[in-house]
Amino acid sequence: MKSLLSWLIPGGFVLALALALALGFGPEGLLEKVGGGYPWLLFIAVALLAGFFHRSRVVLIVLGLCGLHVVFSQGVGGFTGFFLGGGLLALSMGLLALSQDRSVFSTAGLYQLAAFLVVFSFGWLFIVVAPGDMASFLALMPLPARVTVWSGLPQPVFLAFAFSVPTALTVAVLRDGPVERAGFWSLLMVAFALYFSTDPGSVGVFLMGAALTVGLSVVETSYAMAYKDDLTGLPARRALMRDLEGIGGTYSLAMVDVDHFKKFNDRYGHDVGDQVLRMVAARLAKAPGGGRAYRYGGEEFTILFPGKPLKEALPHLKEARRSVEDAAFTLRSWRRPRKKPVDPGAWRGREKEKTKRLSVTVSIGVADSAGNDPSPEAVLRRADQALYRAKKAGRNRVAK
Question: Could you tell me the residue range of the domain that residue 200 belongs to?
Fold first, then answer.
């Protein structure tokens, strides 16, 4: 359900709202009012926000939306100019989906900007210099008419969307990032803007919706950067403190520490240490009993059990500790190829692969909110004291 909601909100919701307005739902005159001068304010705000957070693809998408809005509002090339601009924007968005965000003023970001401007400059030039040729190009029908007539798009433009929409969707599924998902939804809104090309209010609303969607993706990405740990994928310490501020009633809080972690780093290197942390995080993320795992910092993690007193949380923590201890963590020889050889047997014949299984354990200290603790920080402090007792007692155990 959470994954589904992340896909539908905000992109699907914005698209549904824009479509409702275009179909006549809502107060009379709202469509014309929203689609009037407001797009420019939104375009500028989103472009500045994306530039500040180094989201070059969002900046370029907004520039493309601005260009398309200018072509439509100024009547440059009539419907030919509008559809050609929409097709170029769709094609560009499909290619941008395959790239990565960069700082706008970095070398890679400037290359992206230059390529984007070249494409749209040539499109603008062709519209102004040879509008008849462009109209003939859009009239081409390489496919049977019945295949595309439902879309309301010229076939060359339809083919641009036929490339970009599946591309953007595939990238969004594989990367599962806010910007990638927003790129897919905003691409659909550009298609709807072209479909409703005879209604200026609808065109403005769909272009605004596309800009709003990619703008919200920048906010969502920035939020994830602040509240999610990049290495382990768990919520970070800031997310824990936020959740503790809003919690009330009975709850248990456990501090988890990887035993002898410094020795892993000193002996095997930080890469192996990172793998250990990811493995432990994956095990703790599956903590039974409704526990929420967080990365507290370094080799320390936290598990929060809302609504559970200590006696109910304790069995689940013992199970989580055993889960980490039972996990197989194999250290492979540094000579092992990064990619599987064509003939693995031949490689093993030259150099016998050396493997070593590492023992990874954790110590856990737990406390609950029972008593007269003045704040969640006091519960956290008592859990930390319990962790100290667990380590002092020999590690690889749960203490309360």
Answer: 2-227
